[in-house]
Structure formats: C-alpha cells, structure tokens
Amino acid sequence: MLDSLKKMFSSEDDGKPVSTTGKPDISREKSAELYEEAKTYFPGGVNSPVRAFRSVYGTPLFIEKGDGPFVWDADGNQFIDFCCSWGPLILGHNSPKIREKVSEVMQKGMSFGAPTAIENELAQLILKNNKLIEKIRFVSSGTEAVMSAIRLARGYTKRDKILKFEGCYHGHVDSLLVKAGSGLVTFGETSSAGVPKSFADETIVIPLNDRNAVEEAFRQFPDQIAAIIIEGVPANNGLLMQDIDFVQFLRAITTQNKSLLIFDEVITGFRLGFEGAARHYEVKPDIITYGKIIGGGLPVGCYGASAEIMSNISPEGSVYQAGTLSGNPVAMAAGIAQLTELLRFGFYKDLNNKAQDFVESIRRFASTRNYKFKVFSIGSIFWFAFTDKEIKSAEDIDPSSMEKFKILHRELLNRGIYLGPSGYEVGFVSAAHTKVELEKAKRAIIESLDIVFRTSPKNPKEE
After folding, report:
1. Is residue 76 part of a domain?
2. Burial per residue of 221-247, b for 16 or more beta-carbon CB atoms within 10 angstroms, e otherwise
3. Torsion over CA of 115, 118, 122 and 125, rounded to 10 degrees?
4. pLDDT bucket at 40, cuts 50 / 70 / 90
5. Is residue 91 part of a domain?
6. pTM: predicted TM-score of the whole model, two decimal places
7. What is the tens place of the pLDDT at every residue in 110-124?
8. Which of 13, 234, 311, 417 would disulfide-bridge 240, Cβ 3.0–4.6 Å?
C-alpha cells in the first residue's frame, strides 16, 4: 500500500487532456493562483499529500464553501461531493444542527485544557449506544487514537511486536508506516524517511486474508505479539472487504495467544452503523479506535476498550497519554449534534439503502456495457475499480488501472461531480444526498465511463 501512496505523491502531472470527446475542462484559474501561492508556504503546496492532485489531472481545487451535498471551489464551480471530507460529513456539509450546537458552545469559550461537562455528555451518548466498549479516551485525530491504542496494547500485554496487514493504513504512526518484505511473514521495512528501522522492526507485516501467514507469525514470534491491528473494513487502499470467517479467525487466534485484537474504525466507526464494523462482523475487538465522524467535521478521535484494559491509561495506570486539546468543547459539541442524528430511528437503514440503490444502478450499466469495471461497496461507502475480479488485498489492484481513474476523475469534475483525487480512495454517500443529486451523479458517471473506455489505451494483458 505504501508503494502506491508514494506513486501518488511523487511526480507532478502535466495536466494534458487525454480525451477530446469529453466536456471542456472547468476553469481552475483562481485555484491555480492559490496553489502557486501555497507552494511558497507549504511543502508541495498542501498540508496533506493527496490534496496535491498528483495522481489525477490538473490543478488542485481550492474549496470555498460547502452546503448539504455540495461544495464550491474558488472559481465558483459547484460539485456534488462524494469525498465528504474523507468520510466524517455523514450529514453533509454545514449541517444546521451541528452549526447551531457548536455556535452555542463557542459562546462560552473554545478551549480550557480542563474537564468539562460536555465531555461527559458525548461519552455517555457513545457508551450508552455502543456495547462493545466500556470506557473511552478522547484525542484529537484518528492517527493519535491509533498511536495511543498501540501503546496501550503494548503496556497491557507487556509485549512489543504489532502485527499489521499490507493494504491497511493506520495513520502516520512511525511503527505502522511500514511495508512488507519478501517473505510470507517478515518484519516491516520503513516506508518513510525519518522512521527508524528499529521502530519498523517491531512491526510484522503480512498479506490480508491469509490465515497461514497469521498462524506462521505466531509460531515465529511466540509470546511476543502484543496485538493484531486491522481496519474495520480496509478502506484506505481500495475497499478491501474481508470474509467474516477471516475476521472471526483473527479474534480466535489473538485470544488463544493472549494477544489483543485492535479494530481501527476511524473510517467505518459510526459510518456502517453506530457500532461500526465490529457489529457488522459480530466480533468484539479488545480495543477500537474511532475518529472523523465523532467530530462532525472538527478534529477529534477516541479509543475505547473494556474498563479493565482502559484502567492501564494514566492517571489510573502506567500507560501515559495526554493532549491539551483532548475533549475540546467545540469538537465535543459537534460530536453530540452529529451522533444524536445518527441515533434517529431508521437513519442507517435509509442512508445505506439510498447508497446501495446508487451503486447498483452503476453496476447494472457497467455490466450491460461489459466494461471491466466494478463498484465495491458496504453501507454508504463505495469504491470504483477498473477490474473484473474480486479484490481482497492490495496485491489484487492493478496499478495500470489508475490511468483510467485519472480520465474518470477529470470527466466527473467537468460534470460537477467531486471524488477524492486518487483511484485508491473510497467515496461516501451522505444523508444530504437526495435522489435528485444521486440521479445526476449516476448520469455523469455513466457518461464518463463511456469516455474512459472509448479513449483509454488498451492494456496488452486485456487482449
């Protein structure tokens, strides 16, 4: 996975058109000016790598505002947005209920670095409706939640090694920013400058969906593995849905070896349902990390576990973790407003049904045309892949298919549809997307797919 990330961010695209049959390119003049200015302030002109548009065509869009299912860029172009700030905007942009709650709390102050009653309110809301955890600790990002969960697992088990899967991304934590070596089971190798090899040496990386590799890891490193960590549904390198049997196997083998099972639900938590992927699989992990949706668009994350495991966190236990902005009242307010809406009767049923109707209509079209194209989906998360095969691991993704995604992304922008600027990223349907927007998006996708398959050079492997 990290190799694919590096390819995304390593080279500038020339931005030249690949098709003369599509719609004219939208104006990006103002965005281009802002980007040139930004490059004098920030590395690569951005504050997070994928935003640089290096794996798609053209200049990055600088977003001016968002409302409901729409965003507008600095040039005034309007888009139906399926990026949704990479997932957290499950109610859509600028939700009135979130905005009102945040404004109310902001009148009293925005940060105290001290306990507040609103932290209790959000924690009670989560724990009362999520029976998989008993105590939580708020932090300020998903990466911080994962980092803290790993430290907790090591402190609780008194072991050092972590087992992760190729194709799962868990934030820019040093010990997890690694790639696999050449063996069935191997220590990780650093995938970023600045990550000491000694950190990566404590991380074992194996393929997804491979029971033999998991079993071999425990044989090679008996009583050394603190935890297995896996995304609830791997969704940072495509949508790599795992068989329920495999996930349940991970639960069994960690229990058998007195290791912990960590679910990274930064994307899937509160998105697939209030209890996330863990409830979907009917598996109870030892530690779960959450993020994104809890903040309703503001920076927040949390990790949770049983009261026994969480008792190891300072000041109650010896595992230290702290944060000045942890439990920030503004973020807590946004979380209360958003999660209250998610608990409304029928919310997830309505959202997931709407999303599935949308993706099914695209699947039917692609099937009718015999296009080498699939839409993978679960709940309100979807992923477009130019393949005719099932994809369950990073190795199953053909890197050359990203050339087709580049064309698709450009054609969709020109039709007012915004997806994340990478073919490895998933999309999201929000409660704000109505049948009108989804129908318009479907038509745009259908038109764009026709152009992709009419203009893309053939891969010799396909002939």
Report:
1. yes
2. beebbbbbbbbbbbbbbbbbbbeeebb
3. 120
4. very high
5. no
6. 0.90
7. 999 999 999 999 999
8. 234
pLDDT at 444 over 80: yes
Residue 29: CB partners within 8 Å, gap ≥ 6?
Answer: 75
For 207-237, write each residue's pLDDT tens digit. 999 999 999 999 999 999 999 999 999 998 8
For 385, list phi and psi in degrees, rounded to 5: -135, 130
Residue 277 and residue 152 in one domain: yes
| Distance in angstroms (rounded) separating the CA atoms of residues 159 and 57 | 46
Q: Are 188 and 226 in contact (CB under 8 A)?
A: no
pLDDT value at 187 more than 50: no
- Residue 86 domain flag: no
In total, how many domains does the chain have? 2
Write the CATH number for 124: 3.40.640.10
61, 230, 452, 459 from 447: Cα distances, Å: 22, 37, 9, 22
- pLDDT at 456 > cutoff 90: no
Query: Do 195 and 173 have their domain in common?
Result: yes
Q: Which of 288, 271, 329, 344 has its CA nearest to residue 117?
A: 329
337 and 254, same domain (yes or no): yes
CB 410 within 8 A of CB 448: no
- In tens, the pLDDT along 245-281 reads 999 999 999 999 999 999 999 999 999 999 999 999 9
Query: Hey, is 378 helix, strand or coil?
Result: strand
Residues tagged active-site: 169, 264, 292
